[in-house]
């Protein structure tokens, strides 16, 4: 039985991941901003037989709250950390406001980094697991979402780098990266709010295929059950497990 902490757990992929781990009999700590949704999910999971479900209201855009959560990790006894929370914005890069960019950096980058490094510091010699959720946009720049892509490139590099360091130093902890494609959740709706682009007329928008949160959570469990470093949704909606997609260079005496 693992003690699993999931950020962005109140809805969408996070909630579906919580249901997957609960069905396996794992203990859950759910992290999100929306207390009512967290309480409803907690009740649902407990009614379905989950052994233990707790939640904590945290705004991951608030660096003080994030640091407090990171500082509390040792006493929380988390074995599996899933950094799932994120936000995006679909628009031309120069139409992205400073406020939106700061929030995106805080949630997509800073919170992921602070929690990942704090978790790695206390768990690197233990059979623990770090899973960071990025996006296909973390490996290829997506038109009309360049700032979002940039934030997810950070997550893919950070996670693959931590995984490489753990492996090189023969440590027990593992780090994995989940790179979903489009998921039919409120994330997509929120990302389009305030956009100056008429998304309905963007070429190819009508051809985009979506996974449901439940489908993506099932694919995430394939990654969790594997020895792979990266689980990435491909353009044809297939799911590919691999040992990593970034080339890791050496500072001295190595190849770039």
What does this structure look like?
The chain is an alpha/beta fold and 256 residues long. The chain has a single domain, classed as NAD(P)-binding Rossmann-like Domain (Rossmann fold, 3-Layer(aba) Sandwich), CATH 3.40.50.720. The protein has seven helices and eight strands. An eight-stranded mixed sheet has the order 3-2-1-4-5-6-7-8, with helices on both faces. Helix 3 (63-76) runs parallel beside helix 4 and helix 4 (98-123) runs parallel beside helix 5 (146-168). The longest helix has 26 residues, at 98-123. It is globular. The chain starts with a strand and ends in a 14-residue tail after the last strand. The model has no long low-confidence stretch (mean pLDDT 89).
How is this structure best summarized?
With 256 residues, this protein is α/β, with parallel strands linked by helices. The chain contains seven helices and eight strands, in the order E-H-E-H-E-H-E-H-E-H-E-H-H-E-E. An eight-stranded mixed β-sheet has the order 3-2-1-4-5-6-7-8, with helices on both faces.
């Amino acid at each position: 039985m693992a003690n699993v902490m999931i950020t962005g757990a109140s809805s969408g992929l996070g909630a579906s991941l919580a249901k997957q781990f609960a069905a396996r009999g794992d203990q859950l700590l759910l992290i999100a901003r929306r207390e009512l949704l967290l309480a409803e999910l907690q009740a649902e999971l407990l009614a379905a037989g989950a052994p233990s479900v707790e939640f904590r209201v945290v705004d991951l855009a608030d660096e003080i709250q994030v640091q407090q959560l990171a500082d509390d990790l040792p006493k929380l006894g988390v074995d599996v950390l899933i950094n799932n929370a994120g936000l995006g914005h679909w628009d031309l890069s120069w139409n992205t406001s400073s406020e939106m960019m700061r929030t995106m950096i805080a949630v997509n980058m800073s919170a992921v980094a602070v929690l990942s490094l704090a978790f790695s510091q206390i768990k690197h010699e233990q059979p623990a697991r770090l899973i960071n959720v990025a996006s296909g946009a973390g490996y290829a720049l997506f038109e009309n979402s360049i700032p979002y892509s940039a934030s997810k490139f950070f997550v893919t590099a950070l996670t693959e780098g931590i995984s490489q360091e753990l492996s090189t130093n023969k440590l027990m902890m593992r780090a994995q990266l989940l790179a979903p494609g489009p998921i039919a959740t409120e994330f997509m709706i929120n990302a389009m709010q305030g956009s100056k682009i008429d998304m309905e007329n963007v070429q190819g928008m009508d051809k985009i295929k979506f996974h449901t949160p439940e489908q993506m959570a099932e694919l995430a469990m394939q990654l969790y059950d594997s020895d792979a470093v990266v689980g990435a949704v491909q353009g044809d909606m297939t799911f590919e497990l691999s040992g990593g997609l970034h080339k890791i260079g050496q500072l001295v005496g190595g190849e770039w």
